[in-house]
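Model it.
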Amino acid sequence: MLVLWIVLGIVAILIIAFIAIFNGLVGLRNQVKNAWAQIDVQLKRRYDLIPNLVETVKGYMKHERETMEAVTNARNMAQQSASAGAGARAKVEGELGAALGKLIAVAESYPDLKANQNFLALQEELTSTENKISFSRQFYNDTVLKLNNQIQMFPSSIVAGMAGFKAAEFFETISAEERAAPKVSFSS
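Modeled.
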């Protein structure tokens, strides 16, 4: 009889451990989804700012059509990739970031544009949005790391395998332009 109680106690402990690990994995998976949604919110804000920035710049930059078209095309491609995975989305977003960087660099050549209040306000909004995107990406990747660690570490790896949990994909910078350090120049 004592052996039966011991066996039942061990089984109960294993069931409770399984439930606790499973619930922890579900919580982490939901945090990853939430973190990805936060990136989407900031990217939407970026997409909304770009047409205003391009329109403001158009009035000053008649000869820079290629740069503006590149930004517009990159924005459209980024919006179309909304359902893509983190890796594919990171690549497209990196291309958009590089195109925006080129637009801002070209705009620096136009003194009247640099002094335009609309341009300055949009540039500040875009800078703020880029910072928020960066923080959101960092939070997403931190959350992915926690989930992936739980999926791969013992004993939660057993529960994760039984319950069909899969490792999440990191949001990584892919483009060389996005990896390169920006050049700062104080000469006109």
